[in-house]
Specification:
Blueprint (H helix, E strand, L loop, with lengths): L6 E3 L4 H11 L3 E4 L5 H6 L7 E4 L9 E4 L2 E5 L4 H6 L1 H6 L2 H6 L5 H6 L2 H6 L7 H7 L3 E6 L2 E6 L4 E3 L2 E2 L6 E7 L7 E7 L9 E9 L5 E9 L6 E2 L1 H7 L6 H13 L11 H22 L2
Parallel strand pairs: 1-3, 2-3
Antiparallel strand pairs: 4-5, 5-10, 6-7, 6-10, 8-9, 11-12, 12-13, 13-14
């Protein structure tokens, strides 16, 4: 289908974009990479009267380390995440996961902030951000505020982002030396959303017991999930078949996936456990 007509706006600053959002209210919609919004417009699930394109706002792009944090502009594309030497050294989970998103065309256009702000439980970056203990900087008419990733997602297409706010930056602490990390994703074909996926970031003590861990799951509920109970099953213990089985069971217990062409609830829940096992094994292998 052809989307309905709309007015196009191309601001050059965040303030201009915020002013446009305030002016047009519910009739205005932000455009980042477009991979989520444009298909919805073609199906007429979304019919904005005003399109506000963020692609000419230079301040929303870039990757840097500042104030003890890695700071990534929300309009930074997947390709730049993959190619960033800073991320490869300090947050290697991000470039590894970005390689599993879509195909080269998607990765050349799709943005980190767009993936997060859309609030789709099938998107990969929400769980990755939760696993990395990331924070999101939101800017609106009254200035900026910061929200932890695990508190940002409220439901399908529902987030903490207000109608007059823009996600401007993603922040995460660098991973200390010796941290292991992995993102394991089951999908039917290249470019597809995950049937189920698991992100793990962990550290082991000198006795090879788990001293710190964060686990998050993709596409097995109405939002990305932090599997805190599964983390507790592993803390202070060596990574064994028994401890992993306990963590997998606790992770499966919080899954409530929607049945679709990728599988029914039982299958997706089982696959979430299997993706977690693979991620734990691969993350442990990377621990120093």
């Amino acid at each position: 289908m052809i989307p309905p007509s709309f007015d196009y706006h191309s601001p050059h600053t965040v303030r201009e974009a915020i002013d446009l959002l305030a002016q047009y209210g519910e009739d205005g919609k932000l455009l980042a990479g477009g991979h989520s919004l444009l298909p919805m417009m073609k199906l007429r699930f979304a019919q904005p009267a005003h399109m506000i394109d963020l692609n000419r706002i230079a301040s929303l792009r870039g990757i840097r380390e500042e104030g003890g944090l890695i700071r990534i502009g929300a309009m930074t594309v997947e390709r730049d995440l993959i190619n960033s030497k800073l991320l490869q050294q300090k947050l290697p989970l991000l470039p590894e996961a970005a390689r599993q998103i879509g195909d080269p065309q998607v990765r050349n256009r799709g943005t980190l902030g767009g993936d997060i702000a859309h609030g789709d439980p099938g998107n990969d970056h929400p769980a990755i951000a939760i696993a990395l203990d990331a924070r999101f900087v939101l800017e609106g008419p009254n200035g900026q505020r910061t929200v932890k990733a695990e508190n940002f997602f409220h439901g399908i297409y529902m987030t903490e982002l207000a109608e007059d706010e823009i996600l401007v930056e993603i922040q995460a602490p660098p991973l200390p030396q010796g941290t292991g990390w992995a993102y394991e994703k089951l999908k039917r074909k290249t470019g597809d959303w995950a049937t189920a996926a698991a992100a793990v970031v962990m550290r082991l003590d000198p006795d090879r017991k788990v001293s710190w861990i964060r686990i998050a799951l993709t596409n097995v509920a109405s939002t990305a999930l932090r599997a805190a109970d599964a983390e507790q099953a592993l803390l202070g213990k060596p990574l064994t078949a028994a401890s992993m089985a306990d963590a997998m069971s606790r992770a499966r217990s919080i899954c409530e996936p929607a049945e679709d062409l990728r599988g029914d609830e039982e299958y997706k829940t089982a696959m979430a456990g299997q993706m977690l096992r693979r991620a734990l094994e691969n993350a442990a292998a990377r621990c120093g």
